[in-house]
Design goal:
membrane, transmembrane helix, single chain, globular, mainly alpha, Rod shape-determining protein MreD, transmembrane
């Protein structure tokens, strides 16, 4: 197996491993009392960071599988948040190459808008379907924390996992 193909598949497996690790840590009963602050959605932040950095590492079917597993394991309505995250990731995937010249502030702003749209559409659709939901305050806190943790996820992805943007001069992207 050649190097670019093996690197592509190793990064896909790494994304799947990180997603399962996040879900495992989320399900792990570390405290018996309810949390005061909702935990940021690290899975959405990781997915969006990797989609913007290297879209070929996180294909749409992998994102759909991971998010559907998260819906099932975290006892959320199955498929709704998964579909919204897939739509958000598809939008970011289509905008990824145009955002290379924007800078990190522009990227964070775009991700903040997409994350806000995912959270709010999820809440609106659940309200239309008359599904009982948590209070609005914790949702806003989780939204703000997810947006705030995004730069840290990008930093970890670049420095530890080697998921960097493809430079404009290096357009050798492996087809997915």
């Amino acid at each position: 197996m050649d190097s670019p193909t093996s690197q592509l598949w190793s990064k896909r497996v790494l994304y799947l491993f990180l997603a399962m690790l996040i879900l495992f840590l989320h399900l792990l009963p570390l405290d018996t009392q309810p949390d005061r602050w909702p935990f940021p959605d690290l899975l959405i932040a990781l997915t969006f960071a990797w989609v913007l950095r290297r879209p070929e590492y996180v294909p749409t079917l992998l994102v759909a599988f991971v998010m559907l597993m998260a819906d099932l394991l975290l006892q959320r309505p199955p498929g709704l948040l998964a579909a919204l995250v897939v739509l958000g990731a598809s939008y970011l995937r289509s905008a990824a190459y145009g955002m290379r010249d924007m800078g990190f502030v522009g990227e964070c702003s775009t991700v903040a808008v997409v994350v806000t749209a995912v959270f709010m559409l999820n809440r609106v659709i659940l309200a239309i379907l008359s599904v009982q939901q948590a209070a609005f305050g914790p949702l806003v806190i989780q939204l703000v924390l997810t947006i705030a943790v995004y730069p840290l996820i990008v930093l970890l992805s670049q420095n530890i996992f080697g998921v960097r943007r493809v430079s404009v001069s290096n357009n050798s992207i492996v087809g997915a």
